[in-house]
Amino acid sequence: MAWRHFGGGWPEYVPVGQRIARAKARAAKQAKRAGREPEPVMITGRGMATTFWGQAWCKNLESHSDISNRLPRGKTYARNGSVTDLAITKGRVEAVVAGSMVYDVAISIASIAPEKWRSIKRDCATSIGSLIDLLSGRLADDVMQRLVKPGDGMFPSPREISVKCSCPDGARICKHIAAVFYGVGHRLDTKPDLLFLLRGVSQTDLVAAATKESVSQAVRGQSAHTLAAADLSAIFGIDLGASSEPKVMDQAVARRVKPAVRKQPAKAKGPAKTQEPVRKSAPKKKVTAKQKPSTSRTPIAIRKKAGKKPRGRTKGK
């Protein structure tokens, strides 16, 4: 039944649970066409966001007067599960929101200007002084504050945001769009890397710039843990360039670095040659004077002494 007002009609009241069920059915169909699963926003607890990244996102939105005055209307929608699907891609947010009807919300966000992104990378690279922290995936507080710096960080300004909702509300930011804004903040709680995707940049560029700066400090001996440039180039895949300064290696790191093993040249294949054992000649026996045969006697004289006739022909016979 619909209530009549000034000759018109109020839409029939539909319980919130039924509205959300219809929105979930729409979200499932749209997600299936896109080849993915729906990603609803489920906020639990008292706050819209609980971590640094989500809270910083919401705080940035609330700092702009032309957005903040419409945001409170979307908190209830975000809390009760009315955002049945929220997908973040490069420069765009698409969502399905349950209201008196099921509405489609689209938010476009411009990419970070190249000069601003270069400034962010440069500032963050010089702020990260610990190579160990960087390898462990930890970002210092000053780095995170630089990324969300008002007006000069990664969060978009109102002029970089374009919104659209299929509801009949003529306001620039309706309660459905406001609910999606809070949904983005909640999503950044667990997936802060989506902020880089949304702004059209890669977090690997930020890490590479910070890594290169930390490596340069280590090679120059300005870090507590210094490594040789060749070893660091092999680890990070970064060309550090030639350096005229001496390269120092920490003793603790040097013990962990295995020296390169030189490969021996391959030997020619062929039948194995067997080496004959060397035969040792028997030692010569010493011959004494008694053992030496007498060379002064002739064979005939020897036979005569023994009473034997010498061989040969005798005359007269």
Throw out a few tags for this protein.
317 residues, two-stranded antiparallel sheet, four-stranded antiparallel beta sheet, 40% helix, alpha+beta, disordered N terminus, single chain
Give a brief description.
This protein is α+β, with helices and mostly antiparallel strands. The protein has helices spanning 16-33, 52-62, 65-68, 72-79, 114-127, 131-135, 141-147, 175-190, 194-198, 203-219, 229-236, 251-256, 299-305; strands at residues 4-5, 8-9, 83-89, 92-98, 102-109, 161-165.
Describe the overall structure.
By secondary structure, this protein is of the alpha+beta class. It has 13 helices and six strands. A four-stranded antiparallel β-sheet has the order 3-4-5-6. The chain is elongated and about 165 Å long. The termini are far apart.
Write the layout of secondary structure elements.
Blueprint: E1 4-5, E2 8-9, H1 16-33, H2 52-62, H3 65-68, H4 72-79, E3 83-89, E4 92-98, E5 102-109, H5 114-127, H6 131-135, H7 141-147, E6 161-165, H8 175-190, H9 194-198, H10 203-219, H11 229-236, H12 251-256, H13 299-305
Antiparallel strand pairs: 1-2, 3-4, 4-5, 5-6
Helix pairs in contact: 2-8, 4-8, 5-7, 5-10
Shape: elongated
Residues in helices, as a percent range: 25-40%
Mean of all residue-level pLDDT scores: 75
The N- and C-terminal alpha carbons lie at a distance of: 177 Å
- Which structural class do you get from the secondary structure elements? alpha+beta
User: What is the number of beta strands?
Assistant: 6
Q: Helical segment tally?
A: 13
Order of helices and strands: EEHHHHEEEHHHEHHHHHH
Strands side by side in the biggest sheet? 3-4-5-6
Tell me the major beta sheet. Answer: 4 strands, antiparallel
Spans of 5+ residues with little confidence (pLDDT < 50)? 1-7, 222-238, 240-249
> Percent of residues in beta strands?
5-15%
The whole-angstrom Rg is 47 Å
